[in-house]
Amino acid sequence: MSSSQSRHVEIFAPAKINLFLHILGKRSDGYHELDSLITFADIGDRLTIHPADQFTFKTCGAFARAFKTADKDSSPLSKNLAVRAAINLAERTGHKAKIEILLEKNLPLSSGIGGGSADAAACIWGLLQFWNLSPHDIKGLDQMLLQLGADVPACFYSNSAHMQGIGEKLTPYNDFPEIPAVLINPGKSCSTKDIFMSRPAQYSEGIRLPDRIDNLDTLCDFLKTTGNDLQRTAEQYVPEITNAISALDNSPSCLLARLSGSGATTFGLFANEESAKQATRQIAEDNHDWWVRFTWLNRLHRY
After folding, report:
1. Which of 49, 87, 164, 303 could form a disulfide with 169 if both were Cys (CB 3.0 to 4.6 A apart)?
2. CA end-to-end distance (rounded Å), the chain
3. What is the rounded average pLDDT of the residues 128-133?
4. What is the tens place of the pLDDT at every residue in 181-193?
């Protein structure tokens, strides 16, 4: 029995945070040109890959019950990006997908923090390890990632980065600071497609990012000149987003609070870990039906 058949692989799928998100225009193929600064949290989903007689996909975790039937389908027609990523990679590499994937779903679904894309990216990394492959062995890997979803390339590399294009143009920030933060999801989901379709056809101008972002003060000073172009529309769909941002803004030592992605998850950046943890406790105590988590941004380096 080969090593890949006798072992299992576990891999982490961190939440992606859009620190700002500007929509620059709409392309002829329907995709939008984006301008964003992204980073990754030290909380997320987890995937475990085991050898099996046939391809199977199972879920567990706090948000597993939120999956619809089509999200748990293990066929090539599955709506689950991790399943599609596994089947696609198997076809490209000539491996038989005799594996069981167990997805521990810890992040809220349709919440603007890249959960599905992160799961797909983690699945690819896990299978590369399982089959003893390197990313360099996969011809057209970046194209495959982008075909799975606009956020998948960013989640695959998991670097704090300036993201442009439809998500495929990534310029890493190597000296990016670690940031204590609080994430809030008010128990509601947002359809990315609906948010984009409903927003006014108004677009931002491209902006110049600092050449270097190596401390929290520089980061926050810059972020205050930016925003999230989807926030107002998302708040119309989920009014609780406004309440979550207010809860963060009103917490001591919160430096900035806004929506991530298309929502409904919001984030707050804090001056120090103690203040962020205190805000987490207080907001969770005041809002029992909200998902509230302390996290470090840019602390975890998966690869």
Report:
1. 164
2. 27
3. 96
4. 999 999 999 999 9
Q: In this structure, are residues 15 and 43 in contact, taking their beta carbons and an 8 Å threshold? A: yes
Tokens, residue 108:
């809220």
* From 45, 71, 151, 229, the catalytic residue: 151
Which domains, and CATH codes, for the chain? 3-172 (3.30.230.10), 179-297 (3.30.70.890)
* Helix (H/G/I), strand (E/B), else coil: 152: helix
Helices 115-130/141-148 angle, 10° precision = 140
* Catalytic residue status for 151: yes
The 3-class secondary structure across 215-245, one letter per residue, is: CHHHHHHHHCCCCECCHHHHHHHCCHHHHHH
Candidate list 16, 45, 105, 119, residue with the active-site label: 16
Q: How many CB atoms lie within 10 A of CB 135?
A: 14
The yes-or-no answer on residue 16 being catalytic is yes
Give per-residue pLDDT as tens, 253-281: 999 999 999 999 999 999 999 999 999 99
Question: Has residue 224 got a pLDDT over 60?
Answer: yes
Q: How much is the pTM?
A: 0.94
Separation CA 74–CA 58 (nearest Å)? 9
